């Protein structure tokens, strides 16, 4: 079959790498893709929210399956758009319509969904700009630290953990009054701070059945020891030792099952991936957030552990036949180390030539923010540039393979964290 994959990051390169391994893949197109996807697929110069151009490409390339990588086109209604035309409405899409995508597009919507379906999550209240005084009064009654979240999409920057009441009040005013995140903070969710260890659980669902993919832990902060500014993710590890069978059984019973059942009961169509950000609080799972797609960089660690045909999984999701799909997971460890442009997540310079090794043992290099310059040389084009995934029978071997590959990659001002997975290693030992 011919597949169109939307996106340009490390997640999409990992998807592409896995899709082309399937004998059922005739031709893969990636829009817009990156320098890595261009080596294994055909890149199309189309933005992920250019719905007209996406529709034209689907018809022109005789696409049989559309796979949506990032959240923006889903939240903006790509699936609904394609369903509105006779010539595209029968083509399966992996990704939910706009209503389902609101689980990520609105924190308030997702919290109310959890409340209605008795899904464990932090206590919260939502306030708009007209309720600023009520919000400030609410803060005075809460224990610290407290979490303040912009309701809408804010490129991963709309969540603040405030240690003092003064900081919390100032942050609330900045979001609501000063529109710090624009339309995304026209409403703000104030949430209790949960303690414990965070992890990501990934679920594939066709709206009726579901399959739980390997769980992962990611590393958000730019600095070692989880210090400094939040980023899109500096690394990931799977499996994680604190997500044992007893804990994952609770996740399935208390969160995954009521989430999928709740979507069906509320007539929210959903064919795609659900990324459930969780807190393990003394062995009990609480939902921090839903995302309506796979995570990045967790995907780059999770997909190498899937042994069954990944394209068949995507087809089963899109066509509503997931119950018949046999998911096979490797017991191996996979660890991803993200290499970024110096200065990220602040300002950084682009266009530096990247030197890659001709081959790496036990590791795969996924491209994220890369492109080719006018001379055809590989250069850094974004903040997160490469995601290097190592595999191994144990965590130590996987990390060794990741870092051995990382140490062979060079470009001016490149940066990576040297402590990915070290906290998990300590727990194991």
What order do the helices and strands come in, and which of them pair?
Layout lengths: L1 E6 L2 H10 L7 E6 L9 E2 L7 H10 L4 E4 L3 H4 L2 H6 L9 E2 L3 H8 L1 H10 L7 E5 L3 H9 L5 E5 L8 E4 L2 H12 L10 E6 L4 E9 L4 E3 L4 E2 L2 E3 L3 E4 L4 E4 L6 H21 L6 E10 L2 E8 L6 H5 L7 H10 L13 E9 L21 E5 L2 E3 L5 E3 L3 E9 L2 H12 L7 E2 L6 H7 L1
Parallel strand pairs: 1-2, 1-4, 2-3, 4-5
Antiparallel strand pairs: 6-9, 7-8, 7-9, 10-11, 10-16, 12-15, 13-14, 15-18, 16-17, 18-22, 18-23, 19-22, 20-21
Helix pairs in contact: 5-6, 7-8
Descriptive account of the structure:
With 429 residues, the protein is α+β, with helices and mostly antiparallel strands. Among the domains are: 2-98, Rossmann fold, CATH 3.40.50.20; 123-192, ATP-grasp fold, A domain (Dna Ligase, domain 1). The protein has 13 helices and 23 strands. The protein has helices spanning 10-19, 51-60, 72-75, 78-83, 98-105, 107-116, 132-140, 165-176, 245-265, 298-302, 310-319, 395-406, 422-428, and strands at residues 2-7, 27-32, 42-43, 65-68, 93-94, 124-128, 146-150, 159-162, 187-192, 197-205, 210-212, 217-218, 221-223, 227-230, 235-238, 272-281, 284-291, 333-341, 363-367, 370-372, 378-380, 384-392, 414-415. The strands form six sheets. Strands 12, 15, 18, 19, 22 and 23 form a six-stranded antiparallel beta sheet that branches. α5 (98-105) packs across α6 (107-116) and α7 packs antiparallel against α8. The longest helix is centred in the middle third of the chain and has 21 residues, at 245-265. The radius of gyration is 21 Å and the shape is globular. The N and C termini lie far apart (47 Å).
């Amino acid at each position: 079959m011919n597949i169109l994959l939307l996106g340009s990051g490390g997640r999409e390169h990992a998807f592409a790498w896995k899709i082309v391994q399937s004998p059922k893949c005739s031709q893969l197109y990636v829009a817009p893709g990156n320098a890595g996807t261009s080596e294994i697929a055909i890149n199309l110069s189309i933005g992920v929210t250019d719905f007209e151009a996406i529709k034209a490409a689907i018809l022109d390339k005789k696409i049989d399956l559309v796979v949506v990588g990032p959240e923006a086109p889903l939240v903006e209604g790509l699936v609904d758009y394609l369903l509105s035309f006779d010539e595209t409405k029968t083509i399966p899409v992996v990704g939910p319509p706009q209503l389902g995508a609101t689980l990520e597009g609105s924190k308030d919507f997702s919290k109310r969904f959890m409340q209605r379906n008795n899904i464990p999550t932090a206590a919260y209240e939502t306030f708009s700009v007209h309720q600023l005084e009520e919000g400030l009064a609410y803060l005075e009654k809460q224990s610290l630290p407290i979490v303040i979240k912009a309701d809408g999409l804010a490129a991963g920057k709309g969540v603040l953990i405030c240690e003092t009441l003064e900081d919390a009040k100032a942050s609330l005013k900045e979001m609501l009054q000063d529109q710090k995140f624009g339309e995304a903070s026209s409403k703000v969710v104030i949430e209790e701070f949960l303690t414990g260890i965070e992890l990501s659980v990934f679920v594939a669902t066709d709206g009726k059945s579901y399959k739980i993919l390997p769980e992962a832990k990611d590393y958000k902060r730019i600095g070692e020891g989880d210090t400094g500014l939040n980023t899109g993710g500096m690394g990931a590890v799977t499996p994680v030792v604190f997500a044992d069978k007893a804990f994952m059984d609770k996740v399935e019973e208390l969160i995954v099952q009521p989430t999928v059942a709740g979507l069906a009961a509320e007539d929210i169509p959903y064919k795609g991936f659900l990324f459930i950000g969780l807190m393990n609080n003394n062995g009990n799972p609480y939902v921090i957030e839903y995302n309506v797609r796979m995570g990045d960089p967790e995907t780059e660690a999770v997909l190498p552990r899937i042994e069954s045909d990944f394209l068949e999984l995507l087809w089963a999701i899109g066509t509503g036949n997931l119950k018949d799909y046999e998911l096979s997971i490797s017991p191996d460890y996979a660890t991803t180390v993200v290499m970024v442009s110096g200065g990220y997540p602040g300002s950084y310079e682009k266009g530096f030539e990247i030197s890659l090794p001709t081959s790496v043992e036990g590791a795969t290099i996924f491209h994220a923010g890369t492109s080719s310059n006018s001379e055809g040389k590989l250069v850094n084009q974004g903040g997160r540039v490469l995601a290097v995934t190592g595999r191994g029978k144990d965590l130590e071997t996987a990390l060794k393979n990741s870092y051995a590959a990382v140490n062979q990659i060079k470009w001016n001002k490149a940066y990576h964290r040297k402590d990915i997975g070290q906290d998990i290693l300590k727990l194991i030992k």
